[in-house]
Design a protein that fits this description.
169 residues; alpha/beta; 3-stranded parallel sheet; 5 helices; 49% helix
Length: 169
């Protein structure tokens, strides 16, 4: 639709392939390697976008993973941390730097991917539930805090969609 896309991911080969596919289809895109769990990576991502394009009009925070299906008492702390840090911390860090830039430029729009699991808990995926509830709450708080700065913040909450993630569940 004409948007210039600046995006990140941990898997560099895949990121470069996506960038190539977008440009081959006539779009404009740039990939930057980053891990949404790491503060410095996300600051560098936003700074890289600003250096290359001068502004961020729309941010789409979509990184997300799931844990092995398990009851709460049988989960490892490592599985919990990995999901919550990727899904919830990743959205927090992204919004932290996106919002700062949007305030400087006079506005923008942020869309976060939550999930139906952010509104209704499901068994055996408590880290995913908790992370998506957190995204819903962070989105509402950011919308209230920055609406007067011309920054619109919303979340989408997809239901069950056939993806590699849902295939594993």
């Amino acid at each position: 639709e004409g948007a210039i896309v600046h995006f990140c991911g941990r898997r560099e080969a895949l990121g470069m392939k996506v960038q190539e596919n977008i440009t081959a289809a006539g779009g404009k895109a740039s990939y930057q390697k980053a891990d949404v769990r790491i503060d410095q990576d996300i600051k560098a991502l936003v700074d890289g976008c600003i250096k290359k394009y001068g502004r961020i009009d729309i941010a789409f925070n979509n990184a997300g993973i799931e844990s092995p299906s398990n009851k709460i008492a049988d989960l490892s702390a490592e599985d919990w941390d990995n999901v919550v840090n990727t899904n919830a911390r990743g959205v927090f860090l992204s919004m932290k730097y996106e919002i700062a830039q949007m305030v400087r430029q006079g506005g923008g729009c942020i869309v976060n991917t939550a999930s139906i699991a952010g509104h209704k808990a499901f068994t055996y995926i408590s880290p995913y539930n908790a992370s998506k509830f957190a995204i819903v709450s962070l989105t509402k708080a950011a919308a209230l805090e920055y609406g007067e700065k011309n920054i619109r913040v919303n979340a989408v909450s997809p239901g069950w969609v056939e993806t590699p993630l849902t295939d594993r569940i």
